[in-house]
Design a protein that fits this description.
The complex is a heterodimer of chains A (about 220) and B (about 600). In chain A, helix 5 runs antiparallel to helix 6. Chain A is mainly α and about 220 residues long. Chain A folds into two domains: about 50 residues, no CATH class; about 170 residues, Four Helix Bundle (Hemerythrin (Met), subunit A). Chain A contains six helices and no strands. Chain A is about 70% helix and about 0% strand. With about 600 residues, chain B is an all-alpha fold. Chain B folds into three domains: about 230 residues, Up-down Bundle (Cytochrome C Oxidase, Chain A); about 220 residues, Up-down Bundle (Cytochrome C Oxidase, Chain A); about 55 residues, no CATH class. Helices cover about 60% and strands about 0% of the residues of chain B. Chain B contains 16 helices and two strands. In chain B, helix 14 packs antiparallel against helix 16. The longest helix of chain B is centred in the N-terminal third of the chain and has 37 residues. Chain B starts with 15 loop residues before the first helix and ends in a 64-residue tail after the last helix. Classes of the chains: A mainly alpha (about 220), B mainly alpha (about 600). The interface between A and B is large, with 52 and 64 residues.
């Protein structure tokens, strides 16, 4: 059964379909989504994934490569003799908790359906709180006299949190746009799709933050 | 977008602005990209002429040019740093703003939906956005010539410290900042385009259009777009770090002990080599982003003029995949002289020699496609044949450069300049020009002049060889690139004067393109009216009305029953069988 607010596709389905589209063959659904006609003897070829979702995956692929580039620069620079590890700003624990909680709330809300707008509002507020917390972490470091050019680790910390923050900000703006739709009770297919895409992105930036924490303070 | 065909069949906008300026129609956007790219090529070409003027006659004075470039050519003599800005901007404009935009975004946007039987791209709005992101990038790049210090001067590779220390040369100031900004916008635009291309190719094909029935140009676009999506982001990361080195006081790429004037710069511990690695991780795949679609056009231009199928379709597709994978692990061959561990160099050399195998397969498939052909030497066919010749010549040079042993001798000489101009300059140029002659009737409903086209081809072809084959020999003689004059070097005295010959040939090459420009605009208004399928070609775009209306196909989207290379099928009523002809009429060969 398809959940109206689910992603519309499960991993198991993808693997099952993978056999069918080994030559990118016939997708099981979305059959006549393009041609504007139903007849014809030839099969309709395509991925079993809607365009927007596939496009989002590709986009997340490019973001992954962006941070792969940062990571390789980080690893090379870390081997330099002037590398001094940064003290860990304790507020990052809270920020991480806030971001993880926001992802959990988003999923719970999507499953519950009831009072959806409150759930999304909650997620958005947590997203803003996270960004605010990151600013506090910057302040804490500055209070200790650690600035952007102080040493390579601090440079990477400010830049990576900044670039990640920009991606979170993009997520917050997307959440707000979905919230506006839900607020007007536009609970149709379109809202459901927007929300599921938004959720994929939001979990991605959450996972990305955990990865960055690992790179910045454990590697 | 699933279940919403209305998105793809939206009504044609009526206002001028939505129709021709802020259009979401892939054909309009394709032509916008194409014209933008051609405009940038004119600028890039003019820069090349200035470069050749300097190299051919370094001691002459050009009072007229002093009036146009009061700072760069003060007193009629070229400043060395103006020369550096010229080569930097020539490379940047040609690689990113001419070939990438013209081939991939221009022809790609125009042809992709037409060749796969779609009504538009998967994301029409994103498509428009990507074009209007690249426009400010072009403006910024061109504007950088007019800011204090002039345009960026650190090469199209933007190596630090030249690109990272603001005081290094005049162009390292605001010009370099604008260069980074322009590139950032270009990358953002190209990423949007890449997402759109990959999604469209995989998801918007019409009924019957399986992957193995795609024209090879579409395959090359797919691989090139994936490469672009994977390779550009790490350069973005590097560019962000470079910006902070320039303006934030960080030391990612700047080592300690750099002096400027009397002052030690505050940077320490950074590695200029880190930039080179990050840059070439993009840079090498980028050359395949350029050359694969060019080869795709060459492959697709041949069958209509040989009247036979392309040779080795499947093997070409597999080779494209192999090139795509291998291109990500060969970037180090640009850095053999950077002091890298010889074993690492060996790894990159082996990878580079490995990539010659699929490249050679494609080259041989092109040549084998000529076997037994009833060759019709129309203008597009000449350009396709020319690009095979360039690909062969450039490819042979590449074998020398991919091997660390010989590259260490040839690195940073004119051999390299000659080599890469044949590959990403020549093959791509001929593909863009040949593609223009071929698809012009589809785009504008008129034929280009055949006689002018042939003269244009032979002038371009011969002059190109005269310029860039000669440069290979200068490279053997040890002439280094990026120097603005060779008058002071005793060891170059025997070969120095060949530069004047090269310059004359380069001017012929440049003038020949004016002939093309004239032909283009003359044919636009005065050319003979084109039939719907003037080349009697089998690919899908010729099934659409000429020029194609909004939505491309009228009421119903065509259904595809065969691959795009059914020429001279025995028993068929004509010597070409369009992809839409059902199996009941002509037997399906594939």
């Amino acid at each position: 059964m398809r959940r109206p607010f689910g992603t519309g596709i499960r991993v198991a389905d993808v693997f099952r379909d993978a056999r069918l589209w080994s030559d990118f063959g016939t997708p099981p659904s979305d059959d006549h989504r393009r041609g504007g006609f139903d007849g014809g003897s030839e099969p309709q070829h395509g991925l079993p994934v809607p365009n927007a979702q596939f496009g989002l995956w590709l986009f997340l692929g490019t973001v992954t490569m962006l941070f792969a580039g940062f990571t390789s620069a980080y690893l090379v620079r870390q081997a330099g003799s002037d590398w001094q590890p940064l003290p860990y700003p304790p507020i990052l624990w809270i920020n991480t908790g806030v971001l993880v909680l926001s992802s959990v709330l988003l999923e719970v809300g999507r499953r519950r359906q009831r009072a959806l707008r409150r759930w999304i509002l909650g997620v958005t507020v947590l997203g803003v709180l996270f960004l605010f917390g990151q600013l506090l972490a910057w302040r804490a470091l500055r209070a200790q006299g650690i600035y952007l050019p102080t040493n390579p680790h601090s440079s990477f910390f400010y830049i990576l949190t900044g670039v990640h923050g920009a991606h979170v900000l993009g997520g917050v703006i997307t959440l707000l746009s979905v919230l506006a739709l839900v607020w007007r009770d536009a609970l149709g297919e379109r809202t459901a799709r927007r929300l599921s895409l938004c959720a994929v992105y939001w979990h991605f930036v959450g996972g990305l933050w955990l990865y960055l924490l690992f790179v910045l303070f454990l590697l | 977008m699933a279940g919403k065909p209305s998105v793809h069949t939206h009504a044609e906008p009526t206002s001028f602005w939505r129709r021709y300026i802020f259009s979401t129609d892939h054909k309009v956007i394709g032509i916008q990209y194409y014209l933008t790219a051609m405009g940038m090529a004119l600028v890039g070409g003019a820069l090349a002429m200035l470069i050749r003027l300097q190299l051919g006659w370094p001691d002459e004075k050009w009072p007229l040019l002093a009036k146009i470039f009061p700072r760069g050519m003060s007193g009629g003599v070229m400043n060395p740093d103006f020369y550096l800005a010229l080569i930097t901007m020539h490379g940047t404009l040609m690689i990113f703003f001419f070939v990438s935009l013209g081939l991939v975004s221009g022809f790609g946007n125009y042809l992709l939906p037409l060749q796969i039987g779609a009504r538009d791209m998967a994301f029409p709005f994103l498509n428009m956005l990507s074009y209007w992101t690249v426009v400010p990038a072009c403006v910024i790049m061109l504007a950088s010539f007019f800011v204090e210090g002039g345009a960026a001067a650190s090469g199209w590779t933007a190596y630090p410290p030249l690109s990272a220390v603001e005081q290094a040369v005049p162009g390292s100031g605001l010009g370099q900042t604008l260069w980074i900004l322009g590139m950032a916008l270009f990358i953002a635009s190209f990423t949007m385009g890449g997402l759109n291309f990959v999604t469209t190719i995989l998801n918007e094909r019409t009924r019957g259009m399986s992957m193995m029935r795609l024209p090879l140009f579409i395959w090359t676009l797919l691989i090139a777009s994936i490469l672009g999506l994977l390779a550009f982001p790490p350069l973005t990361a590097a560019a962000i770090l470079l910006l902070f080195d320039r303006h934030g006081g960080t030391s990612f790429f700047l080592p300690s002990g750099l002096y400027f004037g009397e002052r030690v710069l505050p940077h320490s511990g950074g590695s200029p080599l880190l930039w080179q690695h990050l840059f070439w991780f993009l840079g090498h795949p980028e050359v395949y982003v350029l050359i694969l679609p060019a080869l795709g056009i060459a492959l697709d231009l041949l069958p209509p003029f040989t009247r036979k199928p392309i040779f080795g379709y499947r093997l070409t597709v597999y080779s494209l995949f192999a090139i795509g994978v291998l291109s990500m692990i060969v970037w180090g061959h640009h850095m053999f002289v950077s002091g890298m561990n010889p074993y690492v160099g060996e790894f990159f050399a082996i990878g580079t020699l490995a990539i010659t195998i699929p490249s050679a397969i494609i080259g041989f498939n092109l040549i084998a496609s000529l076997w037994g052909a009833r060759l019709q030497l129309r203008t597009p066919a000449l350009f396709a044949l020319g690009s095979i010749a360039f690909f062969g010549t450039g490819g042979l040079g590449g074998v020398f450069l991919g091997n660390a042993t010989s590259d260490i001798q040839l690195h940073d000489t004119y051999f390299v300049v000659g080599h890469f101009h044949f590959m990403i300059g020549g093959v791509t140029l001929l593909a863009i020009l040949g593609g223009t002659y071929y698809w012009f009737p589809k785009m504008f409903g008129r034929m280009m002049n055949e006689r002018l086209g042939k003269i244009h081809f032979w002038l371009t072809f011969i002059a190109f060889y005269a310029v860039f084959l000669t440069q290979h020999f200068l490279g053997f003689g040890g002439m280094p690139r990026r120097y603005y004059a060779f008058s002071k070097f005793e060891f170059l005295a025997p070969i120095r004067d060949m530069n004047a010959f090269i310059s004359v040939a380069a001017f012929v090459l440049g003038a020949a393109q004016l002939l093309f420009l004239f032909n283009f605009f003359w044919s636009l208004f005065r050319g003979a009216r084109a039939e719907q399928n003037p080349w009697r070609a089998a690919t899908l775009e010729w099934v659409a009305p000429t020029p194609p209306p909004h939505g491309n196909w009228g009421e119903t989207v065509p259904e595809v029953h065969r691959w795009p290379y059914d020429y001279s099928v025995p028993g068929a009523p004509e010597d070409f069988t369009p992809q839409t002809v059902p199996p009941t009429v002509v037997e399906v060969t594939r």
